[in-house]
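Subject: for your reference before the review

Hello V.,

The reviewers asked for a structural picture of the protein, and I figured it would be easier to keep everything in one thread rather than splitting it across files. Below is the amino acid sequence we used in the manuscript, unchanged from the supplementary table.
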Amino acid sequence: MGVPLSEDLRVRVVRAVEGGLSRRQAAERFGVGVSSAIRWVDEWRRSGRTAALAQGGDRRSDRIEAEAAFLLARVEETPDVTLSELQRMLRKRGVPVGIGTLWRFFDRRDISFKKNRARRRAGAP
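And here is what came back from the structure prediction:
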């Protein structure tokens, strides 16, 4: 994913268009893509905003977060439950999620399913 161009550049393109240049001419003058100049001017006219929107981040965790109480209760009652088992339980509840989504859910809460000495089922023979 690319880095957003500076707000200063966006403002200069918008001002050039408002000053009489076409969007294509302004794009050429400032060395930006025509489609970018068109989007920037449209957004400025619609909302008055020239700043770039935030990039990246999690936009879909609300589905899994809605099941937080259910998931945490399952882990509390069965500490050695696997992510695959939790995935199947959620699927039965009508919430299809991937293993990675579950992993990130527990990672946000610093819950780890790594094996440790206290959780070993059987010792060496």
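For the response letter, the relevant points are probably these. The radius of gyration is 25 Å. The chain has two domains: 7-47, 62-119.

Happy to draft the paragraph if you're swamped.

O.
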